[in-house]
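Escalation from tier 1.

The customer reports that the assembly of two entities below gives different structure tokens on two consecutive runs. Tier 1 could not reproduce it. I'm attaching the input and our single run for tier 2 to review.
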Amino acid sequence: MKSVRASAPATVANVSCGFDIFGFAVASPADEVVVTLTDKPGVVIREIVGDDGRLPLDASRNTSGVAVIEFLKAIKSEQGAEITLYKHLALGSGMGSSAASSVAALVAINHLHGEPLSRKELLPFAMESERIACGSAHADNVAPSLLGGFVLIRGYDPLDVTSIPTPAGLFCTLVHPHLELKTEDSRRVLKATIPIKDAITQWGNIAGLVVGLMKPDFGLIGRSLKDVVAEPIRSVLIPGFDRIKEEAVKAGALGCGISGSGPTIFALSTDAATAQRVGEAMQAQFTDLKLKSDVFVSEINNAGAKIL
Amino acid sequence: MKSVRASAPATVANVSCGFDIFGFAVASPADEVVVTLTDKPGVVIREIVGDDGRLPLDASRNTSGVAVIEFLKAIKSEQGAEITLYKHLALGSGMGSSAASSVAALVAINHLHGEPLSRKELLPFAMESERIACGSAHADNVAPSLLGGFVLIRGYDPLDVTSIPTPAGLFCTLVHPHLELKTEDSRRVLKATIPIKDAITQWGNIAGLVVGLMKPDFGLIGRSLKDVVAEPIRSVLIPGFDRIKEEAVKAGALGCGISGSGPTIFALSTDAATAQRVGEAMQAQFTDLKLKSDVFVSEINNAGAKIL
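Tier 1 run:
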């Protein structure tokens, strides 16, 4: 039967000031899948490599499985699929692990069926699998993983997704400490209301970030990478956060913040060497706290998920 | 003595979703001043035309006077100035009336002194006169009146002001009902905290508006021109608001909202004829409510204040 291998990248949701509406894709790490068409209906997860047996093999409870089930339903296919999932993204890391798996599977199954749907049309299926993974059908990881680059989710009713041009030479450092935070838990610590003063600061910054990216104006990007809403609350869950952020900026980063709901921390820099140095400075802080961590340095990934 | 005439345009602050951080300038109406250098120190308001005697002639209590006083102090001038102010903007209209007077005076006095300061450097003086006029040194009217076009005030500490490219062919309709709202009163009705859900909607929209302007993407501009924070509260002070907004969009406007703190209502359209038609539709609603109103239609003013 026809078979294809696809990969979908890690993503940074929120990007400090863009809580719940903004995200971007990096080049690595990325999840991979091999999807094979089957003659009989039904979706089977054949194997998951790299999750230490923690993810469900039941397709209806696995994000890659749910995405493919929803896709096949939508195109009224009578065929089924088998999925092998190679997890390279750590679970509960804040790098969009669940999103990467479902997006890779979607891009693969769409390819096997001759690309009946555009990347944007695949979004609702990926969002549906986010609902399975973390309780709400948010798009700030799946959209950049599918579309690449920086993506704005203006609103959900109806879904309004826009790609934002990425300035050349923007590099991301991800430092993932070996801790695990569940998005649900991390959302629970947020407050239901916020001071209007903070809200105004936040929307000044997200507007500044978008203008900075589009002009481009790296200084403005740096000044805008501030989060007065989620970070002050969530950063308490990440040991050494304030110090790490300080060290990242001291090492030359434009700015630094929590990737998604954490504990991974991201930083943006204007060249690869700085991004590497920033990663070392950040990791050194975790090492001081006796926390192991992984560092990933890559350019912003403008292509998103791809067929391998 | 040396004398010069200058004008500064009306402005739309907030622009629906950009509460307190965003504004743009229109071509008309505009305030005018004639400023004359004097040999002895001190600033004198010689005459104000068009205010029905309502604005203070005491320079230290008049926005144009305060701006010039602050400017002369900053450049350590030993000369003084006489100001004649031609008010074309209605007071308490939500079109940046106080800002236009101070900006016109500043541009004039800066010109008379050989332009020692850039437009951006004039901003703090204009902001100081906003403090006199409405109790807080906000920049969302003075910045676009000085700089022209759309202006983002990312933050105040320190002041961070960025001009945003205006797409060609964007027209503004202003409809000013003969009512008066004081910015202070209009601010007082706002709540000190807002639901985080509304805050997220608002920053999705301001990001969308900025992306829409810069791409440009007129559909996205229209979808983003929504205010879930100030408009639902402030619009109650403007008779017929919801209906007027509906009629504006029905007549072809991209979107419509309160200009500054009101009661003037603005709409954006993609050509002059539509902007005119939108104005007529909006005015007809006020007329139905037995309210007189003025309609102003003009292209976005990218130049801002000017020497005449």
